[in-house]
Amino acid sequence: MGCNSTSVQYDIPEPLVDETVYLSDPSSFNLTVVGGQLILPNAGHGGIVIYRRYFDQEYYDFAAYELACPYHWNDGCGLLSSGMGDLYLTCGCNDHQYQALDGQSIDTSFILPVKEFSCQFDGGNIIRISN
Fold first, then answer.
1. CATH number of the CATH domain containing 81
2. Structural domain range at position 84
3. Mean local confidence (pLDDT), 99-122
């Protein structure tokens, strides 16, 4: 089982990402339900959000997104935010929204989706996020 990744080229600096999340850890409780999220603030460039989705009939499907806005990553306001159960990631600079399901912009004039990291789920307890 796995997570999708994109091959789009971004200007966002890409530090090494190698994170392991255990669903059995109490801090990961939100990931036990579809729509649940977990933020890893010290990973990636601006943090990483893990989103549990129901995608292509897969109940155990997770996405891991960079929290730096694709277009405003270098600005002080350029972080994406989202609340538990929220279907969108919102840029702090211009309130532009991206879908949490696939990282795509809700406005077709924005070409870049949210940067998505590769992730693997072992089918039981472990989610591994990397680049």
1. 2.102.10.10
2. 18-130
3. 90
Q: Which residue pairs, CB below 8 angstroms and at least 24 apart, start in 106-114?
A: 110/70, 110/71, 112/8, 112/10, 112/70, 112/71, 113/6, 113/8, 113/70, 114/65, 114/66, 114/70, 114/80, 114/89
Domain count, the chain: 1
Q: Dihedral of CA 115/23/62/109: which sign? A: negative
* Domain contains 12: no
CA dihedral 101, 99, 37, 129 (to 10 degrees): 70
Residue 26: pLDDT over 70? yes
Task: Give CA–CA dist 2/32, Å, rounded.
Answer: 16
Q: 48 lies in a domain?
A: yes
What integer pLDDT is reported at residue 55 of this predicted model? 64
Q: pLDDT-derived band of residue 110, with 50, 70 and 90 as boundaries?
A: confident
32, 24 contact by CB (below 8 A)? no
